[in-house]
Specification:
Elements (H helix, E strand, L loop, with lengths): L5 H10 L6 H22 L34 H6 L4 E2 L2 E2 L9
Antiparallel strand pairs: 1-2
Helix pairs in contact: 1-2
């Protein structure tokens, strides 16, 4: 007997607002039962000596360090930013005109 019944699949389908046919209910019941069985087998593994982890790989913070600065202190210098712009004029970015205003 299946651990996941077709009635449970039908209930989940209604909650998810999915229209499933009779054949699909049976098909998904079998698939979900296999998934639940696989998860149950994983819980049987001896993991007493395995430390809990949040990620499979160690994470490294690649962001800059937080530095307290006085209010109004720019993070980047204006000249440095404008030097990287495709076009600059009068200490501002120069962009194409998009409106016909004078």
């Amino acid at each position: 007997m299946s651990a996941i019944t077709r009635e449970e699949v039908a209930h989940l389908a209604r909650l998810s607002r999915l229209a499933l046919g009779e054949a699909e209910l049976d098909h998904f019941a079998e698939q979900l039962d296999a998934i639940v069985g696989a998860v149950a087998r994983v819980s049987e593994l001896p993991t007493d000596d395995v430390p809990p982890t949040s990620h499979a790989q160690p994470l490294t913070n690649v962001f800059r360090a937080d530095v307290v600065r006085p209010a109004g202190t720019p993070v980047l210098e204006r000249a440095e930013v404008l030097a990287q712009a495709p076009a600059a004029e009068d200490d501002r970015f120069r962009v194409p005109r998009i409106l016909g205003e004078d």
